[in-house]
Design a protein that fits this description.
The complex is a heterotrimer of chains A (about 100), B (about 100) and C (about 550).
Chain A: H1 14-39, H2 45-54, H3 56-66, H4 73-96
Helix pairs in contact in A: 1-2, 1-3, 1-4
Chain B: H1 7-27, H2 41-60, H3 65-96
Helix pairs in contact in B: 1-2, 1-3, 2-3
Chain C: H1 2-34, H2 37-44, H3 58-68, E1 75-79, E2 90-94, E3 108-114, E4 120-125, H4 130-139, H5 148-172, H6 189-203, H7 205-231, H8 237-242, H9 261-271, E5 275-283, E6 291-298, E7 309-313, E8 320-322, H10 332-345, H11 350-378, H12 396-425, H13 433-455, H14 457-484, H15 496-525, H16 539-545
Antiparallel strand pairs in C: 1-2, 1-5, 2-3, 3-4, 5-6, 6-7, 7-8
Helix pairs in contact in C: 1-4, 1-5, 1-11, 1-12, 2-4, 2-15, 5-7, 6-11, 7-10, 11-12, 12-13, 12-14, 13-14, 14-15
The chains are: A mainly alpha (about 100), B mainly alpha (about 100), C alpha+beta (about 550).
């Protein structure tokens, strides 16, 4: 997660970590699916639409179940927020071209 | 149900192979409870590997590759759960005598 | 850091398990039975009063039916393979406008036949909804209706289930290889329940991950589609699906100009020799988008939907419009999409896969039950080892959890068996059998929960297991009675699938009886320092019997 050496503990931060995993995880999954839809522009629409829908849940559930690995709730929000920015940035960029 | 001629035979063969493969895998484990001592690990696992590779091949003669692999994996999961349970039941029976 | 991660995920596992475990038990028990939905529907269907119109005469029956009942043109079915449950050649359903699109239980069902004079006769039919009702219990974790709210609850449960799976694996990672295959039966009950729980969870993890993800998708897909349509597809999603239907034309079309069913079937059979058609679904046949879906099975291939797969044919020209959902004729991306469905429903590999799914489903139910047993065993207060005779009072939360687990899990088993038996006993005696199926299930279910809290988990477990055995053995006994005494007005189908239901129920009843005996021994003779004992503690004996323990057994 991080290269900085902190104290050898993980804060529990149940509420903030769960919320980060649930909310930012969902938006991240949506962003990834959007990016996929843009990159797979050659695919038949009906197929692309379905695959785009199917990929949301696995990504979201993976982020949600992994979010307790972050050292603290703050870090969860920070890293998932950055990931969201990157993915949505790329998604917005594909619209420009 | 199985369409092609000889399809049933190949499905039965695939099932037989996965049963034998799963059993030799289980019997080579130190946790096995069927035999007084586990089978020698290396040869038993080699035999298991051969049987477990042959099983989906047998299934694929009765169906396409994707359903053949699915059928193999699903049967393998079931067997690898049931074998230790049979072992546990054997222990319970022996203890009661 | 590593042990701290494991501690955190252990808490996640415990809480997700407590919140979702019992609902998932119902979903898995009912889901395992749903693997054999068709045999169960055949078992529950009364014998047909009339014989099926020959397939050669189906075309004129369709045309004349559509003239007399234009509302049937929306969606009409022509069955190709008669069975106990499929008795009419032509049938359709009219859905309530307000009802949820997934709620098939509230639809009105009509069949068209030909009377002695050769005139078309349309009757409202009341086919057995038993198998569909159990499927609904499965889809929405024991709730009565498959509506938006129920599906959201199911979605949350599936999400918790996914979390429980991942956290359970993380907790087990350090001992995963060392304890693979371990099921240590012995005095250490916590060790035994832990092994029994883990062996199922670890080995069938791929099955459970597939179920968790697909169940979550089935629950939330409407919402995801809606958001993605706005955000990604610029509102073109519905257009994408419609573009693939038949070309649009002008005024209403005359169904008499359609090709006969035999011809439509022949067009599809020519595409795939291993495809076995079962039913033709006529959709909007008088409109510009007229289409017929030729449904069927292909033993060589996976099926994209629970009820099989289909080819879409234009009924007027006979042109095959789409083979996207035709088993065995799908390209790689379509096969991938179909796999998600096939892996959930077990619609591949014929009968063996159905049995494997049935048993994996039952083991899944056991996974959640044993999880609760483990939770209780972990919080057990033990008598001191030296046998001083002081039997500690058990924690209140463990005895409440014992009652809830026994009541909910065994209550759903008893309820399902009872409602299955009722399909034969109540047929012809009540006006709305579907409603009675529900009443009986919920009466039994809530009755069992009440009983478990009144009598305590230990006694109720024995009572309810015997009751489950009795109600389940009543399934084959009812068939036997119906066969011996036809005057009872019940029926005993003798084809393989319905007899398979009877045989499976008999085996299940024997299983419940064995569990009842073992539980009874535990409750009346086992160690007294547990919520699972009702014995008056005899101090000296209790101390000697208390199992040597193991606080560190699970770390």
């Amino acid at each position: 997660m991080s290269t900085t050496k902190g104290p050898d503990t993980i804060r529990r931060d149940w509420i903030s970590k769960s919320l980060a995993g649930a909310l930012l995880g969902f938006s991240l999954a949506l962003g990834c699916s959007g990016l996929f839809a843009r990159l797979a522009s050659g695919m038949v629409m009906a197929l692309k639409v379905q695959l785009t829908m199917w990929m949301v849940m696995p990504i979201w559930l993976a982020v949600l179940s992994g979010c307790f690995l972050f050292r603290s709730g703050k870090r969860a929000w920070l890293w998932l927020g950055v990931a969201n920015l990157v993915v949505f940035g790329a998604f917005a960029a594909t619209r420009l071209f | 149900m199985i369409g092609s001629p000889g399809g049933n035979t190949n499905v039965a063969l695939g099932l037989g192979l996965v049963v034998a493969g799963a059993a030799s895998l289980y019997l080579a484990s130190p946790h096995q409870r069927w035999l007084a001592a586990p089978l020698p690990a290396r040869p038993a696992r080699a035999v298991a590997l051969a049987l477990l590779v042959a099983s989906p091949i047998a299934f694929s003669r009765a169906m396409q590759m994707v359903p053949a692999v699915f059928t193999f994996v699903a049967s393998l999961m079931l067997l690898l759960v049931l074998l230790p349970y049979v072992g546990g039941a054997l222990v319970a029976l022996r203890r009661r005598r | 850091m590593r042990s701290e991660i494991i501690r955190i995920y252990k808490i996640v596992h415990t809480w997700t398990g407590i919140l979702a475990g019992m609902a998932l038990f119902i979903a898995f028990y009912a889901g395992a039975i749903t693997a054999f939905k068709e045999p169960l529907a055949r078992w529950a269907s009364p014998p047909a009063a009339t014989s099926m119109v020959p397939l050669e005469d189906a075309q004129s029956l369709i045309t004349r039916t559509l003239t007399a009942h234009p509302e049937a043109a929306r969606e009409l079915r022509v069955n190709l393979r008669p069975s106990e449950q499929v008795t009419a050649r032509v049938e359709w359903e009219i859905h309530d406008e307000d009802a949820d699109e997934h709620d098939r239980l509230s639809a009105r069902h009509y069949v068209a036949t030909v009377d002695e004079e050769g005139a078309v006769r349309v009757d409202e039919a009341h086919p057995s909804r038993l198998a569909e009702l159990i499927d609904v219990l499965h889809r929405v974790v024991g709730l009565p209706v498959d509506g938006d709210l129920s599906r959201s609850i199911m979605g949350v449960i599936a999400t918790l289930y996914a979390l429980a799976l991942v956290s359970g694996v993380i907790v087990l990672l350090p001992s995963l290889v060392k304890d693979f295959f371990a099921l240590r039966v012995g005095n250490n009950l916590k060790r035994m329940w832990l092994d029994a729980h883990n062996v199922v969870g670890v080995v069938s993890l791929p099955f459970h991950l597939v179920m968790a993800v697909t169940a979550a998708v089935f629950a939330f897909h409407d919402g995801i589609y809606f958001v993605q349509d706005k955000m990604i597809h610029d509102g073109k999603r519905s257009a994408a699906f419609q573009a693939r239907s038949a070309p649009s034309g002008g005024e209403p079309r005359d169904p008499a100009a359609m090709l006969p069913p035999t011809e439509l079937v022949a067009r599809v059979e020519a595409l795939s020799p291993t495809f076995e058609p079962t039913m033709l679904q006529y959709v909007q046949v008088t409109g510009p988008r007229a289409a017929v879906r030729v449904w069927g099975h292909d033993a060589r291939s996976l099926s994209p939907r629970a009820q099989g797969g289909f080819a879409m044919v234009d009924p007027y020209s006979g042109r095959v419009v789409s083979t996207d959902y035709l088993p065995g004729r799908q390209d790689a991306p379509q096969t991938l999409l179909s796999s998600f469905f096939a892996l959930h429903f077990g619609t591949y590999g014929g009968h063996p896969a159905k049995w494997v799914y049935f048993l994996l489903g039952l083991l899944g139910a056991w996974l959640f039950y044993s999880g609760n047993l483990l939770w209780i065993e972990t919080r057990r207060r033990k008598a001191s080892r030296r046998g001083q005779g002081e039997i500690p009072a058990q924690r209140r939360d463990t005895s409440l959890m014992a009652s809830a687990t026994v009541g909910v899990c065994l209550g759903s088993i008893c309820g399902i068996s009872l409602t299955i038996v009722a399909a034969k006993w109540l047929h012809g005696h009540v006006a709305d059998l579907s409603a009675w199926h529900r009443y009986l299930y919920y009466a039994m279910f809530f009755g069992a929960i009440g009983w478990a809290f009144v009598r305590g988990g230990a006694r109720a477990a024995v009572n309810l297991l015997w009751l489950a055995a009795a109600l389940t053995v009543a399934i084959p006994l009812t068939t036997l009675l119906a066969w011996l005494f036809p005057s009872l007005g019940m029926w005993a189908h003798t084809s393989a699938a319905p007899l398979g239901v009877d045989a499976t129920a008999l085996a299940g009843a024997l299983g419940f009886a064995c569990l009842a005996r073992a539980t009874s021994r535990r409750v009346y003779e086992g160690p007294t320092d547990s919520v699972w004992s009702v014995r008056r503690p005899l101090p000296a004996v209790a101390g000697a019997e208390a199992a040597p323990d193991v606080e560190r057994a699970t770390g």
